[in-house]
Amino acid sequence: MRLxxxxxxxxxxxxxxxxYTRYTERVNATGRGVGxxxxxxxxxxxxxxxxxxxxxxxxxxxxxxxxxxxxxxxLLDERGKAxxxxxxxxMLRDIRDRGEGTxxxxxxxxxxxxETARQQARQAISLGPMTLPHGLARIVLAEQIYRAVTILSxxxxxRD
Length: 160
What we know:
Elements: E1 2-8, H1 15-30, E2 39-44, H2 52-65, E3 72-82, H3 85-97, E4 102-107, H4 115-120, E5 123-126, H5 134-153
Parallel strand pairs: 1-2, 1-4, 3-4, 3-5
């Protein structure tokens, strides 16, 4: 199953991009064995509208346009369900086993997700109760995807 991270905002060159790339390269190298990967990053510029709601709606429409069906959309949101690493791995396994060709993770802009994105997502998950900068959220997500690959393959990277 292909994996897409669709995110509002750009990850700048430097340590954040290096770390993100480290985990995505690991997924791309080892994920095939468990039917996950490659990971594709789709970055979108932040909305320019003057009101918060207009920005969120514009960004939501553009995120959805970059993750056209058929795909399983997963919203990253502070109000989403918090998962353990094991549960996250099992979620990806279950989506893969349903025969989905692509799972797309949606990361909104600084104002959050517009209602359209919430309605179109199949599920919403949280990386935790704290607000993370968008670049760091991508790194944490990429690492958790890599961890899921290792859990599903029985690799010792993840220890219970």
